[in-house]
TrEMBL record:
Keywords associated with the record: Cell membrane, Chemotaxis, Membrane, Methylation, Transducer, Transmembrane, Transmembrane helix
Name of the featured protein: Methyl-accepting chemotaxis protein
Organism placement in taxonomy: Bacteria, Pseudomonadati, Pseudomonadota, Gammaproteobacteria, Pseudomonadales
A Pfam cross-reference name: MCP-like_PDC_1
HAMP domain location: 375-429
Principal cellular location given in the protein's record: membrane
Amino acid sequence: MSIFSFSIKLRITLLAGICMLGVAAILIGFSIYRIDAISTLSNESSSLTIKEGALQYMTKLGEQQAQVVSQRFVTSRVFGDTVMHQVIFLREQAKRLSSDSKTLRSDLFKLMQLQVAANRDVLGLGVGFEPNALDGDDARFTNQKTDGGNEKGRFASYASTLVPSYTMSEKEMADDGAPGTFWYTCAFKTKQDCVSNPYAFTNAQGITTLMSTVSVPLMSGDSVLGVLCVDLSLASLQELVESSSGALYGGNAQVSFISADGVIAARSGEPQAAGKPLVSVDPELGKQISASTKGDTPEVLERDGNVVVIMPFSPIPGAQHWSIVIQVPEVVLLASARQLKESLDKANKDAAGIQLMVGILAALSGLVLIWMLARSITQPILRVAAMFQDIASGEGDLTRRVDYERHDEIGNLTSWFNRFLDKLQPIIAQVKSSVDDTRRTADQAADIATQTNSGMQQQLLEVDQVATASQEMSVTSQEVARNAALAAQAVRNVDLATQEGVQTIDRTTDCITQLATEMHQAMQQVEALANNSEQIGSVLEVIRSVAEQTNLLALNAAIEAARAGESGRGFAVVADEVRHLAKRTQESVGQIQHVIEHLQSGTRSVVQSMQNSRSQADGSVAQVKRAVGALQKINQGIEIISEMNIQIASAAEEQSVVSEEVNRNLSSIRDVTNVLVRQSKDSASISQALNLLANHQQQLMGGFRT
């Protein structure tokens, strides 16, 4: 079934409804697509921002932990340097005073014991001289362990809180590449302070302690006389990594201290791994760290779903780099970003549902309005059609007229139709009058037919002329009929053009209405985004101000704690933590600022939507142009109707001329009939036939009411 077989009202409603539903579907689909794209961009940006902030936080935490560990090693190194200078001083003093070697060695051992007892952070202190480098009397003290002499008499004494007295053997200081001699050979060869890898030491009571050794060369000018070593416990490092791990991301992070040779000094969650090579616990990470410790800059790795931050640091200046390794599962690191994504997805889903419902309601409302508009357009047409039907079924009553008071296209059509009836009515009236005259003349001819026998031939000739004139009048009437048909066709064309103009104007109205709605929504979005940006900006200023004031207060508190000395140490730690929190607050403000920038990006998207609305406005202008074209077609139809009416008027004039000719011929017949009364008998039959024809013509003309 073709759509053109439907009624005008149904066609207008159907086509306009399809256009409205299509536009609504496109707008809703585009809106959902843009919302999803903005959500994806926001999620990616927030994930990247959170990840960068977390990496910065982990790096800063690594730096803080490195400072704590370095402070312990530096303290031990300073302690070693102090003792080293005291040892060199005692040696030089004994040499200057020519003191006894036994007294010198006894004084050195007492010095070592006193220093170990005075420093609780030091587990042991050892001094080993090169052969005859102390007093040149090593042979005298061979195997004299009470005086610090080993199997070759070298002074190699060790004082410790775990072992009262101990003399180091030649094997412990030999240059054989063994790990146990690193403390001596490194400082002796490099003439610099050295730090050994972590190692486990078990005392006589069976207690195992994780230790590291700081070696200091005993220098006399450019010559190395021996090496002083300071042993310190690394047990507190395990407590440090455990507390750091517990405070980082809810205990889901792992913190490790790795020595320069890849030995684990401490590892949160795995205390049994301390003292083991990292490659035996995590081979892949061990290889990556061995490459990372060659530089001074932190490195970030991503592997197996974990984010690894490697922070190289030197335990003491000039020593090989150790590393602090912080591992955090990426899913934990991006937990807040995931929550944000879930919230955005839910909000987008709700917004899409609301938009769909609003679109459906708007489309249904538009269909109802379009149906009402189409009904208001077609009702006048139906009313005029009913009037035409009434006139057509009224047995040719030419006195009736179409009554339509509106001055629109339909009113113009009815006006011209009424004018056509105004011209047709007097013509039919004249024809009826002529028929009456003809009938009366025929009656008169029948009365005198018997007396007009000789004049009947002339009468027949006149009757032939009357027949010819009647034929011409018939042809003219046919011309009038054809012109009337053309006029009717022109009226139908005008009707179609009018319908097209109405449809075009209706579509233009829909486009302009949709454009106004979209621009209104876009303006609301811009105003809402602007207000939110201003509110967030003011809140950020307050947060930034509070963070700065907190940082200043924490700094002042730290200064006051430093002035208070030992009694203010705890308060200094709290002040440092407060300053750290203030710094995190400032970083968070920066992150929020980044989110605001994405909101501004959303504002640009709204501007793009307004540009789309402008394009729809351009489309509406095109629709209006089409409506103008349709109205031009209507004007052309009206011109055709006017031309047809002119032709009808011309045909009517010709009919009038013919009627006059008929009248003249009948007058001649009437004159001849007066002369040839006596010949009427011969023409009686003809007169009767003429009378019958006149009666029949009168019956035909009687069907028209004038």
